[in-house]
Every structure is written in structure tokens, then in C-alpha cells.
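User: Quick sanity check before I run a bigger batch. Here is a single chain. Can you write out its predicted 3D structure?
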Amino acid sequence: MLKFLLFQFNNVMNIKLILFFALPLLLAFLSGCGDDDPVATSVGFSESSLTISESSINNQISVNFDANTADSIDISFELGGFAALNGDYRLNQVSPITIAPGVNSFDFEIEIIDEQLIESFNDTLTITITNAENLQIPVGANSFDLIITDNDVAPTNGVQFDLEWFLGEGVDIDLTDLNLALATGVVIENNSIVDFNAVQSPIGNNSMGFESFILSNDAPDDEYFIVVIYTSGDQSVNFLFNLNGAGFNDAFGLGNFSANEEGNATFFGPITKSGNSFSARRSSNELKFVGKVESDRFR
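Assistant: Done. Predicted structure follows.
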């Protein structure tokens, strides 16, 4: 009888030991079987493009995962298109963006700069996801085009002068600073500018974005030259200016500065003002390049 009781006791103890060690594993297994939530395997833009007016200041562009993220993920992206960073738009996020675990989407926060430039074409910002760690990026969902339409019109009281410049797709224009001004009394000898008077008003003085001003009908009658100044920077830069109003329709001038031409000024023109009438020396619709000089008179 004693042996039988001892045998039974041992069996009970063995069962308890088995339950002691096996029960947590069993519960964990059962818990895992009951929690079968998927995790993100891909990421992409929710739409391929959007067209907005430049008066639409704040915009959110959504990027979606196919499920919640399991871990933190770094999303790398590139900016492209001919909309200029800090000229046409601002984007506070920089690549890569770290996405926290447990989310299924995030937004690019894009602020449109409602500048005064009169533009005959749309500006396009392209955002392209280039890497998402181990997540797939479906074809067609890796890039997004934000198309920005202009909302400005030509003045009725004079000529508007607009200046913009470009350093490359996705490159911050604030790496350089260009300014726009006028000059009178320009003296040219042997195809070189030897003297001029810097007009102090109007003059471009925007603290952000591109430059723009109006030479009004009330300004003194004179022969004016358009001056583009490389105020600061150490980058090669291409620029474009336009004239609109008082008989001008996208009259333009093109030019560039090399990386070592900080402090130089490029002259175009002249534009002759007589009362409410304005005329310019130009070939077709392009204003004539006059010359380039180093000058600090506009600073």
C-alpha cells in the first residue's frame, strides 16, 4: 500500500512540474494565435499627383503603409521638378524621415510661398521615395507630383519686374542670394559699362523667396536698365527675369553667375519710360544683355 501511495504521489508531482513549466509556453502560444494582426510590407503615395493654386498655403501629402509598422523605419526621399525649394515652397522635413512603430501613414508637410511673380507656366514639385529599408515600394506609388498654378496678374499702373533663379532640382535657392534693381545714366565705352547711377527705389528686398517690384507710371521719365546682382553665395547660378504690364507680356532676360562672381551685377536694357508709355530694346521678346560689372553700389 505504501508503495502504491508513493507512486501516486510521484505522478501528481510530475504533473505539477509539467504544468508549471509548460503552462506559460502554452499561454504564450495561444495568445500569439489569437493576435494575428498583419505588419507593413510596402509603402507608397496614396495618389500620384495634385494640382493646387499657389494661394493654397498649407498642404499635406499622404504616404500610406499597407498595415501598421512593426518597427521604426527610415524613409529616404528625393526632391525634383522645377519648383524651387524656399522659392516656390518650403518643406521642413529632411531625408530620411524616421517613422515610429505602430503607424500606417505619414504626411509630407508642404508650405506654398504665395509670391508675386507673374508666371506663364506651372511649377512642379516631385517627391520620390528612394528607400524604405526592407519594405517594398510598388511601381507607380513611389513618386508624387505637386503642380502649383500661378494666381498673379500684370499690374495696370506700370511694369512689373520679376526675378527667379535656379540651382538644380531640389536644391535650396537660399544657398545664394540674388537681387533685382534698376540703374540710370549708364555709360558704355568699348562695350564695357564704365559708370551708372543706382536707383534706390524701387528695388527688390524680399527676405524670402524671389524678387519682384513695379516701376509705376508715376516714376520719373528716364532710360532704365535692369540690373541683376549676385549679392551672396558661392554657387554657379542661372537666373531669369520677366517684365509684364504696360505693353510687356513675358518679356524676359536670361543670365548666369559663376561660383566666384559674388558682388557682380549684370545689366539688361534699356527700358525707356515716357509718361505712361514704356518701350525696350529687345530681340523678339528678349531684352538685350548690356554687360557685367563688379559693383557694391546696390548693397
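The radius of gyration is 32 Å.

User: Great, the batch can go ahead then.
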